[in-house]
Amino acid sequence: TFVVGTEDGFGVLRDPIACKPAVMAETDDYVAFGSEYRALAGLPGIDQARVWEPEPAKVYFWERH
Hints:
By secondary structure, the protein is an all-beta fold. It has one domain (2-63). It contains no helices and six strands. It has strands at 2-5, 9-13, 23-26, 31-34, 50-52, 59-63. The strands form two sheets. It has a three-stranded antiparallel beta sheet, with no helix packed on it. Strands 4-3-5 form a three-stranded antiparallel beta sheet, with no helix packed on it. Strand 3 (23-26) and strand 4 (31-34) form a beta hairpin. The model has no long low-confidence stretch (mean pLDDT 95).
């Protein structure tokens, strides 16, 4: 799994066989990545966030607006 951050964006590519755990959290204010939910549990607004696992071999990218 690769996670890349730039000044204006954030990208994630999960390994093709998904052998490593990965979880994402999205709100209107942030996008966060962790290897397990416990790593994200203390984030503000996590109870309202969309929390999900990225699909294997799929690229996700978010841009700051």
